[in-house]
């Protein structure tokens, strides 16, 4: 029997629906949640090494699930 997650059961989509460049040093959150916040330590392909800013715990996450804290970057208008 296969394990079923809440994401599968309720059809929760964690991936962001827009393109965003995320690099080391950025502050991000994962999924549509507001917390926790993470600092991006490194990016390799489609994976990001994250560090929780409150607890210091490290994690690996799919880059597609990371969202910059201040939202997507927009070009400045002149």
Architecture overview:
- The structure is a single chain.
- The protein is mainly beta and 78 residues long.
- The chain has a domain of 48 residues: Roll (SH3 type barrels), CATH 2.30.30.
- The protein contains one helix and five strands.
- It has a five-stranded antiparallel sheet, with no helix packed on it.
- The longest helix has 5 residues.
- The termini are far apart.
Rounded to the nearest angstrom, the distance between the terminal CA atoms is 58 Å
Report the sheet with the most strands, covering strand number, pairing sense and barrel closure: 5 strands, antiparallel
Provide the gyration radius in Å: 14 Å
SSE order in H/E notation? Answer: HEEEEE
Report the uncertain regions.
Answer: none
- Please give the share of residues in helix: under 10%
Outline type: globular
Number of extended strands: 5
SSE-based structural type: mainly beta
Architecture of the domain at 21-68, according to CATH? Answer: Roll
Beta-strand residue fraction: 25-35%
Under the CATH scheme, which class of the domain at 21-68?
Mainly Beta
CATH topology of the domain at 21-68: SH3 type barrels
Neighbour order of strands in the largest sheet: 4-3-2-1-5
* Number of discrete helical segments: 1
Question: What is the mean predicted local confidence, pLDDT?
Answer: 79
List the helices and strands and how they pair.
Elements: H1 6-10, E1 27-30, E2 38-44, E3 47-52, E4 58-62, E5 66-68
Antiparallel strand pairs: 1-2, 1-5, 2-3, 3-4
